[in-house]
Amino acid sequence: MKNNKRYLPEGKYVMMGNVAMAEGALAAGLSFFGGYPITPSTEVIEHLSKRLLEVGGSCMQMEDELGSINAVIGASLVGAKAMTATSGPGLSLMVETISMAANLEIPFVLCDVQRIGPGSHGPVTAPHHNDLGLIRFAGHGEFQVIALAPMNCQELFDLTIEAFNFAETYRCPVFILSDAYLGHLHEPIYIPPKEEIITRVINRELPQDYTKKFSYKDDNIGGYIIPKPPIIGTDYFPLMTLHLPHNYEGLPGVSALLFMEILIEKIKTNIDKISITDEYKLDDVDIVIIAYGLPVRACYHAVDIARKEGIKVGIFRLVTVWPFPDEKVKKVVKNVRAIIVPELNYTGFIAEQVERVTKLETPIIKIPKVGVLHHPDDILKVIREVSK
Amino acid sequence: MSGMGPIYPKEKPDHPYVQFSTGGYLFGNYNSLFCAGCGYGIIGHIFTRVFEDEKIEPKLFPLIIGIGCYTQLVTLVHHTSQKFFALHGRAPAVATGMKMANPKLKPIIFSGDGDCFGIGGNHFIHMCRRNLDCVIFIFNNSIYGMTGGQAAPTTLYGAESTTTPYKMFENRIDGVNLALAAGATYIARTTVAHPRTLMKYFRKALKHKGTSVIEVITPCVTYFGRKNLDRLGVEYLDIIGEKMDNTGRMLDWIKRNSVRINQAKFMTDEELFNNYIIGEFRYEPDKPEYSEEYAKIQKIAMEEK
Ligand SMILES: Cc1ncc(C[n+]2csc(CCOP(=O)(O)OP(=O)(O)O)c2C)c(N)n1
Ligand code: SF4
Question: How high does pLDDT run on average in chain A?
């Protein structure tokens, strides 16, 4: 039985961030959601408990986050597009499974609605971009993940579709970095017509060639090939799913070193396609702001005012936060006098990365905030000081 | 577990079931990776035998294997079966996702006493509670074999293990009682010393719609047997036993300590102390099954305007 409920009618809606994310997932073809309630992500499971059933999918409230992520893996293995949503404490519980899934190249999407940490109770509805440190190396073992950081409800819808496409194509864990304010924000969003959405979505399909089921290095073309994800219940499934280093058939026969290389390089060599970035008034800059997620919105405002004052400042926005686009950032910061990195955390996970790729003499000014958003004035103040 | 085990001659054995082993199919090696005298060989054999005799469609019965010594059953089971190794304790959750994303499948889970009642207890309880259509085997050897003989939640009172050198004094978990309380609808316990009964239960579970829990008592000669006496638990009666360092003694001990369910009704708790009650504890084929109930709700949701 099929119906047309998967796609909302084209038009403008006012939606909460968490709901927009859930609708994006539906549009991307979600058919299994496993979750466990945790503020501020709970609206996702609440919304999907109704909506996912309407399209014939399953939305399960599992016994805990370990259960959620493992059920998601199980569903993905039988060919479903699957996701979960959680916040910091839940994410910590999931990491063992995330590493296993990364090593077996099982695609899934995880929406992390970050909250002020690390506590498990208290004022948990304040935002804090504190999970990137965990997410970028989410678990034991070596592998790469993809993390996308939307900054408004429209992007929560659009980038969720992109996240599912990345998961299908690159077969690695894909994270959506939302936060307590973004997830609870209500904003107008535009849902495009069904026909347009369908052209954007990469479906789970069986390949022509059934012999290769896991990524491998092709010495002839010198690149890394990522076959489609195998599906239990079809002929396209390996004899074993070894947690150990395995070759493209899933059997032993590849060195551990080469195996790690494949897992990491299959992402790194595709960084041009994975890395989504955005530039704002970036030609002729002296000062560049590098930001992601909600703080970017305050930056736009600050930059507009500073420009009026004649300060040459612009924004380099990371939409794909991880993998970090080394080369692009190197190019952007090449001739600037100073770099400002406003982040919703104290550590400065991205500031650390910027530091890694910039010349020693370029000053990097962090603007840390925890639990409260940046006011444009906070950023403007720093811009003015730096420009003196 | 004893390393890679002996390498048998390369030719295919005549044995009607061993010839289907995954290890043989892949590597031409028809051995098992278990210690000499381990009970898991019997279990692997029985699984393959039922799989072959019942002409099970492998694509409809995915095998989800937990982590423990029994993970190596993968080399013994039928090579056509589709296998996935879950993480330690998480197999029931993986099975839940599989079943709900493709309700045509009926997952078969291999799990151990540590896997299922220790680290994965919560998932097991909730799978039983939902009465999800699947079969779960729990191999109870009263010890953590894989990691070298530590106490399990099922370790018998008075037993020695590497983490209970002064003897086990914690209460043990009774998997069957747990499954009964949690709401599984087919629950049975047997031992590897009763292979025909095990096959019977397995066949019945395959046809049952709902969670089937089959606990199998199996000997771990290397880590349980070597350290414990075959009169374990009755030392207070001044009976001194012998070390169970071979399969004969261990199987003997298992048989002696297994009480049929209808006999157990007439026995006192003291008499049943450290014993295993075997038999079928519950069979309720008419109870609603989770994925079927879910499908009904999906239908309502899909038709709603
Ligand atoms: C998260 C995690 N913790 C610990 C381990 C180590 N470990 C592997 S098997 C095992 C015990 C398995 O015991 P049981 O399920 O009784 O199986 P047996 O080996 O006795 O057959 C442990 C603790 C692991 N693999 N993963
Ligand atoms: S359960 Fe015990 S006897 Fe069997 S393989 Fe493991 S250690 Fe050896």
Answer: 94
Residue B146 sits at the chain A interface (C-beta within 8 Å):
no
Coil, strand or helix: which one is A154? helix
Most distant CA pair in chain A: distance in Å? 67
Query: Using CA atoms, how far apart are residues B177 and B138, in angstroms rounded to an integer?
Result: 13
In tens, the pLDDT along A198-221 reads 999 999 999 999 999 999 999 888
Protein fold of B32-304: Rossmann fold (3.40.50)
Question: Do residues B115 and B68 make contact, with C-beta atoms less than 8 angstroms apart?
Answer: yes
Virtual CA dihedral for A301, A302, A307, A310, nearest 10 degrees?
150
> Could you give the CA distance from residue A7 to residue A24 in angstroms, rounded to a whole number?
9
Distance CA B187, CA B176 (A): 7
Task: Band the pLDDT of A118: cuts 50, 70, 90.
Answer: confident
* Residue B265 CA from chain centroid, whole number: 24
Average pLDDT over residues A326-331: 95
Chain B residues touching residue A243 (CB < 8 angstroms): 85
The CA-atom distances, in angstroms, between B121 and each of A224, B89, B127, B138, B227 are 40, 7, 10, 12, 27
**Ligand 2 pocket member B40 (CB < 6 A):** yes
Q: Are residues A344 and A256 in the same domain?
A: no
H helical segments located in B161-285: 175-182, 195-207, 247-256, 261-264, 269-272
Tell me the whole-structure pTM to 2 decimals: 0.95
| pLDDT over 90 (residue A111) | yes
User: Does A252 lie in the same domain as A175?
Assistant: no
Instruction: State yes or no: pLDDT of B295 exceeds 90.
Output: yes
Nearest CA to ligand 1 atom 9: B68
The model's confidence at residue A388, banded by pLDDT at 50, 70 and 90, is confident
> Kind of pairing, strands A11-16 and A186-191?
antiparallel
Atom 4 (ligand 1) nearest CA: B88
Q: Phi-psi region for residue A28, left (φ > 0), alpha (ψ -120 to 50) or beta?
A: alpha
Same domain, A188 and A316: no
Residue B32 has a pLDDT of: 84
Distance CA A96, CA A85 (A): 16
- Of the pLDDT bands very low, low, confident and very high (cuts 50, 70, 90), residue B290 is very high
Question: Is it true that the peptide bond before A118 is cis, omega within 30 degrees of 0?
Answer: yes
- DSSP per-residue codes, A24-91: HHHHTT--EEEE---TTTHHHHHHHHHHHHHTT-EEEE-SSHHHHHHHHHHHHHTT--EEEEE-HHHH
Q: B36 CA distance to ligand 2 centroid (A)?
A: 8
Range list of β-strands (E), B153-238: 186-191, 211-217
Is any ligand 2 atom within 6 A of the Cβ of residue B38?
yes
pLDDT for B2 equals: 44
What domain range is A36 assigned to? 11-200
Are A240 and A169 found together in one domain? no
Q: How far, in Å, CA of B129 to CA of A81, rounded?
A: 26
Ligand 2 centroid to Cα of residue B34, in Å, is 6
pLDDT of residue B237: 61
Do A57 and A195 share a domain, yes or no?
yes
B98–A50 CB contact, under 8 Å: no
CATH number (domain holding residue A137): 3.40.50.970
Write the CB contacts of B186 (distance below 8 Å, at least 6 apart in sequence). Answer: B204, B205, B208, B210, B211, B212, B213, B280, B282, B283, B284, B285
In a shared domain, residues A328 and A362: yes
Contacts of A207 (CB under 8 A, 6+ apart): A227, A228, A236
Any domain includes A211 = no
Residue B271, pLDDT score: 87
**Pair A320, A277: CB distance under 8 Å:** yes
